[in-house]
Amino acid sequence: MNSDTYNSGPVLAISKMSIVLGGNEILHDVNFELHSGEFSGLIGPNGSGKTTLLRTILGFHRPAEGSIHFEGKSGFANRRSIGYVPQKILLDPDVPVRARDLVELGLDGHRLGIRLPSKERRRQVDDMLHAVNAEAFADQRIGQLSGGQQQRILIAHALIRRPRLLLLDEPLANLDIRSVAEVVNLLNQLAHQQRIAILLSAHDINPLMGAMDRLVYVANGHAASGPVNEVIDDKVLSTLYGYHVDVIRVHGRILITTGPGDEYFEPGRDCVTPETSSLP
Ligand SMILES: Nc1ncnc2c1ncn2[C@@H]1O[C@H](COP(=O)(O)OP(=O)(O)OP(=O)(O)O)[C@@H](O)[C@H]1O
Ligand SMILES: [Mg+2]
Fold first, then answer.
1. Cβ-proximal residues to 10 (8 Å cutoff; 6+ apart), any chain
2. Ligand 1 pocket test: which of 25, 42, 43, 51 has the largest number of ligand atoms within 8 Å of its C-beta?
């Protein structure tokens, strides 16, 4: 069975997975599935383990416990075909690489020795630029594009080999509100129209609220997953954080807050009385 024929069951299944780095357990007992055609959010505060989780899916870290199945198989080899947009990419304005060149480079990632004919390459690059609505700036230098334009090109770069799973690490950071909405709509469309499973990490849930099919929320070394309205719930998130939090819906936005005097007891944990703050 290869990635073209695998079409039953989840694209990615993570079960009872724990990740230990440098002797510290970063995440414990993580369980979730991603499905074709679904757009999922990976939400959590700074340092909660979002990047670590994505890098573990990609095979950069080996889980200390539990399993990862990609298209029904465990093991790292086939995970090379997962599309990835990393968190930190610095694109120098002076590097003489056009946007379309960067997209084309995505074709060569893992095809050493086999090169498509140039006409076919050109067609695939043009198709991809069209899919992410980037034709207008395709011939400009990548480092001279705006953050939102660069993000479209990086998505095209990751998608051009037609992965069944696309992971994006904080692609909305540093974008203005309009670009955030555009990138989210684009990814939502790509997931549904091209039957890709997409997992996008972010620390603010709000820009993703209308778009997400499912949610993986990481905090305090644990993860909660499921349909958005099931996870964004006082009880579920209080258990996850290990202290009482309130989910407040105001003007269509979600605020996850905690205040002085709030106390939440969980068997086996100390009582925590956090300071007033707004959580991601
Ligand atoms: N290679 C490593 N060795 C040891 N600890 C690490 C390593 N990489 C990350 N960590 C730790 O793992 C925790 C989670 O880090 P990670 O970068 O995954 O968080 P994040 O949710 O992506 O944060 P951010 O929102 O800031 O990007 C942090 O405490 C970090 O210090
Ligand atoms: Mg990160």
1. 33, 34, 35, 69, 197
2. 51
13 vs 210: which has the higher pLDDT? 13
Look at residue 24 and tell me whether its pLDDT is greater than 80.
yes
* Under 8 Å between Cβ of 143 and 95: yes
Whether 48 is in the pocket of ligand 1, judged by its Cβ within 6 Å, is: yes
Same domain, 273 and 223: no
By residue count, the chain amounts to 280
Asked if 105 and 129 sit in the same domain, the reply is: yes
Domain membership of residue 151 (yes or no) is yes
For a ligand 1 pocket test, name from 20, 46, 52 the mutation site with the most ligand atoms within 8 angstroms of its C-beta.
Answer: 52
User: Which structural domain range is residue 270 located in?
Assistant: 243-280
182 and 256 part of one domain: no
Q: Give the CA-trace dihedral at 79, 83, 84, 89, to 10 degrees.
A: 130
Q: Is the pLDDT of residue 251 over 50?
A: yes
Contact 33, 12 (CB under 8 A): yes
In a domain, 138, yes or no: yes
pLDDT (tens digit, 9 = 90+) per residue, 29-64? 999 999 999 999 999 999 999 999 999 999 999 999
Q: Please, what sign has the CA dihedral across residues 177, 206, 187, 155?
A: positive
What is the CATH number for 26?
A: 3.40.50.300
Q: Assess whether the C-beta atom of 55 lies below 6 angstroms from ligand 1.
A: no
Q: Are residues 144 and 168 in the same domain?
A: no
